[in-house]
Each structure stands twice: as C-alpha cells, then as structure tokens.
DNA sequence: CTAGGGTTAG
C-alpha cells in the first residue's frame, strides 16, 4: 500500500489558509464524526471516490489533501479515480494539478494511470505531453496506450504519425483491437491516406471486428465517405453493419447531407424512424440542416414538432438548426418563425447568434436587423462573436452599401482577433466592392493573410460586377498560372462578368475552358451560360445550352423565359413558361417578373392580366412591387395611362419609386405632361435625390418643346448636386470592348467613324429617314440639333461596328440607358442600307434590327 | 484508462 514516509502533497502545493483548514464536518461526515480519533484511510478513500464519481473534483481533491495532511498518503487508485473524473468532466486544469501531485507523490505509476494521463493531455489538445508520457512508458504500454496515442495523433491533424504508430504497434507484436482499428481508420479518412485505410480495412475484415463493433463500422463509413468520396460504398458499409444505433444512423445521414445529397439524408432519417431507432439531438441537427438545404418548409415544420415532442427543444444546437431551417425555408424571406424559435431558446451560443444574424442577411435581407442583433449580442455579453459572425455582418454592411458601418464592424473583428480569418478578409473585399471602392477592394485582397480560391473568386466576382471584366479575366489567368484549381463559382462569376458587359467573345472563351475542365453538366454553370448568351444577345446559343441540359431547375427555366422576354419573343417566352408548368416545376416570383414583362414588351394586355391573376390564384405567390411595376408598364405602354394610375391606387401597399418611374416612362412615350409631373412628384416624395426622375421629366418637357421647364429642372439638379448618368454605348470586337460617349473623339479610329456616319446619314436620308430632333434635349437650331443627333453614342458604336466587323456577323451594341428614339429609327434604316443585322441591348431589353424592322415593333 | 455522430460560412 502506501508508504507513510513520502512528503505530503499539501506541503508542496500550499493552499490559501482558508482552504488549509480541515474540511467542515458536512463535507467529511464519516471521518470527522469522532474528530478525536485519527481518520481512517479507507473511509477517506471512499469519500474521495464518492466525490469524484459525482464530478465534484474540488471536494475530492480536498479529501486527497486531507489524507496527506493526516499522514495517510493516497494510493494509486485514488489518483486514478480522480483523473478519470477530470477526463469525464473535461476539467483539464484540475487534471494537470492532480498530475503534479502524482509526480510529487513519487508513487510508481501503473498503466492505468499513465493511460489516463495520455488521454487527459490528448483531450486537452496537448499531443506533445501525451507523446512524452507514451514514450517513457516502456513495457507498461498496452493496447489502451497504443489506442489512446493513435487517437491523439489522429485528432491533432497528425494523421501520418497516427498511421505510423499503428504500424509500430503491429511490429511490436501487438494484436490491434477495435479501439486501435477505429482510431487508425479515422486517421486515414481523408483523400490523401484513404489507400492506407483500405489496407487496414482488409485487416479489419480478417479479424472480424467489422461484424462485432459499431465504432469500427462508423470509422469505415467515414473512410469511404470522406476519404474516397464514395457515398455508395459508405452506404454499403452501413447496410452491412449488423448493429445500428443512433450514432451510426446520424453519421450516415450527416454524410449524405454534407456531400450534396440532402434528399437521401432525409430518406435515411425516415427509414431510421420507421425501423424504430430513436433520433436524438445530433440526429435532429443534422436532418434539419438537410431540410433547410432543400427548403422543405413543411418537412421542417414536422421535424420541429418532433423535436418538441422529443423534449429536445432546449438544446442549443437543435435550436440553432431550427433557426437556420426557418430562415432558409420560408419562401417569402420572412424571418418571423426563425426569430420566434431564436427568442424562445433558453440559452444562446455563438452559433445561434450567428445563425439568426446570417438568416437576416441572407433571407430577405433585413441587414439593419442583423446589425441590431449584433448590438444585442454584445450587450448581453456572454457570447463572443466568431469569424462566421463577422463575415455575415460585413456582408450586411455591403448590402446596405454602408462603408462607414462596415469599417466599424471590421474594427470589431480586428479587436476580437478575427480579422486574419480568410472568410473575414474575403467579406471585407466584397464590402469594398459593393461600395464601389475597387482600389480598396484590391488592396484588401493584396493584404490577405492567405489567398485561397474563395479570395480569388471574391475579387473576380467584384471586378465582374463592377463591369470590369478585363481585370476579372486577368485574375482568372493569374489563378490558372498559380495552379489553384478553379471551381464552378469562378466560372459562374466570369460568365456573369462577360454577360454584364456583353462580351460574347470572352463568354465563348470561358465556355470552351469550362468544357475542357469538365464542368459542362454543372447546373449552376449551365444556368450562367444561358444567361450569358442571352444577355450577350445570342438567344439561340442560350436556347441550345438549355436544351442540352439534363437536369433543369427553376433558375434554368426562368433564365430562358427572361431571355426570350428581353429579346421580344413573347410567344416563345410564354411557350417556355407553359412547358415548365407541364414538366412539374413550380414558378417563383422571378419567373413571374419574366412572364409579365414578356407580355408587356409584346403589348399583350389580356394575357398579362391572365398571368398576373394566376400567380396568386394557382401558385400562391402574392405579387410584389416588381410585378405591379410590370403591370403598370403593360398598361402604360399601351396608352392606358389613367387605368395605370387607377391600378397603382388599388395596390395593397404604397407604390415605390420603381412603379412611378415606370409610369413616368410611359408618360414620356405618350407625351402626357400632367401625369408625368405627378409621377415625378411621387418619386421625389420617396427619394428627393433620384436623378432618373429629373431626367425623365426633363425629357418629357423637352419633347413638348417646353425649354424653360427643362432649364428649371437642370438648375434644380445642379442645386442638389445630382448628375445624370452619362449615356454610354459599347461593342466588343476581337475580344476587346470599345466604349463610346456622346460626341466622343477619344477612339483611335474616331476620324473613320465620323466619316462613316456622314456617309450613312446621307444615304439613309435619301431612303426616307427624317431626323427626329425632339430627341435633342437642348434648345438649339434645327441644323445644330441634327448634328448633335449624329454624335449619339449608339450611332458611334454602330459606325465602328460597320467598319470593324465582316458582313454576315450581326453588330451587337450595348447601351447603359434606354436607346434613343432617333437612333432606333436610324438603325432600322442603316440595317436596310447595309444589309447588316444590328442587335442592341439597352437597359430594358433587346432590339433585333434587320431589314428595316425591329423585333420590338417600335414598342418599348 | 482507449473509439463513433450535430449546428453557424464566403
């Protein structure tokens, strides 16, 4: 037993006087009952074990010290019980204290205590101390020591050491048991070492541990799912496991959910419930996340009620998953249910706070509420934000284009020491990009601690969205050179960059690259290709991509319908829509915007009304502002201005600037000054600084020749420091984008361009073209007006297209604003005179001009 | 004394 001559640990670890006093009678009832007698060793030991088992380690340690003070040196079993309790309750600090007391006791340590120490340090993340103990064990090493050490390495990102240790063990003549096997296989559950895992798998089969042990089965599921990315094999392992429990069920459900197959995850969950296994909090978190991935609200609600019935609602993680599920699944972006769950949670942690904040940022985008919640979180004070919290918050600031707020948020991230996470750095890049600060975005990119694919994708996307496709392509080459493998996201950004500038040549190049990289069947990319070709003016190429897709989703259909609508093919758009319905895909809000705008572009009033009604009647989608704006457009363009006003008044909510701007546009087309003025007033009521309203109104007055009013408006704009967006047209030739502004002489071939324009002017006048000088918005002489007309940016671009591209190719022009009426008419004549097809994308739609006719039927 | 499952993300 114990030798009484050893020094008392209490002398080596003096405690504050208050604690050095003998424990109170309450805590040591049996021993101090007859305080005059010497306390008995066995009694004290029993007390110690009782405290340790109850998890009250402090009391157990007091007892230990008390023993020592009374000359009764504790035995190994007492220490061992204490250590186990520390490990169980993850109280590493006291565990280390016991280790030092153990060292001071100079007892001869046995395998059990040493193994406990390895486990203690391993769980505390201190692999080095664990290793030191393991190495000094000598022949005291047993299977437990080996398993603990292998597992320690496997959990410390030292997979190779874990594997070596496993083979060392075999060389030492040990026969691995299920613990060793599952630890070693865990170390192999990654792409790099999966092949070693397969070798070990062979051992497992031979030794029969696969049949006998659920844990070994679980580690094999991970070997196949995480190591070999083969869910089918993982499922086979699972199916062949003779015993299943809630852990193995949850594991297989989670892997399906994580590896992009949430449907199967949910099917497995149902199978689990039907076969009588009881889902626990882990299972619910996992299956809820699969459900939110699919946005299956109804199923999510059923899970919610199951959670309630299972009494798991108070678990933080389950609550967090519910918050996330409601945020992602609620179709109209309402956060109400999500918030309700959040508010009723008894305890919050970083994840639940972050989940609700992220929910607000991503769902409908109540970014202010997200920031508000951050304030609440800080005030509440018990939870520290993490890098996920900050990337969500920075995104909120980007959505609000509030750079000042973003900077404050970023400072908080710096203070919390989280700024070096790449997710935070990347969010900062996005923030600057959203606020139109590309130089700062670029600097933030250069200063990143570590650039990963997401960083490249972020900056590429930023350049693409800021109409700077050249820079985004440069970055693309840079990534390719650096050997980083690009992903679908990269291609999608590049395609949307090409699409927004209308660089079809660049778009085709990317198409070729992604074919080579094997992304041709990727749904997201195909959708991006459809919209790229369509937005670049090549609707047939878009349609071809669409037809070749094997798996179309709502986005594919909507992209195609939008494409046909913008290109003025209302019939094909509506045909697509009906085909979509019969193929069983449910339309969403965006689809209806496309359908209604198809009707409006084609002047199909009755059809438009029919579809407008059907959206709520048959598909339960309540019309949003955009849909009302489409209907106002439809009525307004057809000249039913009064009806349009009635319609606006009948709306269930207050019309916003978009709706009024649409009406103002219609007023301009139909020359209704009074109503136009009213519309402009309504716009300025909501946004006194909206330059578009001033410009439209000024155009309206100008076309009626009311020059004083035009001048008044200009003065008003000047006083408010408002600048009208400059009209700009561009054209891509040989992969280069050429931009033109009104009266531009910057282009190297300017001389040729103006000569060409003079020629054209003469030619088309002979053919019957009459310049419509109403489109010149200054009060000048007629001749001068005509001169101005022929400096319009779209005409310059057409002239450049004619001299720089060969004949059968259509000339594709892009304009940031709506195409001018005179240019539209002139281009029709030009198409007739030159036999060239001219395709114009303006801010509203496409014009396919051929043989003197335009696809818009002069109705836009 | 040794082993297995979950949540927030650009």
UniProtKB/TrEMBL annotation:
According to the entry, every stretch annotated as the DYW domain falls at 768-860
- Ranges of compositional bias, category Pro residues: 14-25
Q: What name does this protein carry?
A: DYW domain-containing protein
Native source species: Cinchona calisaya
Repeat keyword on record: yes
From what superkingdom does this record's organism come?
A: Eukaryota
Residue ranges of region Disordered? 1-37
Identify the stretches annotated as PPR repeats: 142-176, 245-279, 349-384, 452-486, 487-521, 522-552, 553-587, 588-623
Q: Which UniProt keywords apply?
A: Repeat
The family database entries (InterPro entries) matched by this protein are listed as: DYW_dom, E2_motif, E_motif, PPR_At4g14850-like_plant, PPR_rpt, TPR-like_helical_dom_sf
Protein family membership? Belongs to the PPR family. PCMP-H subfamily.
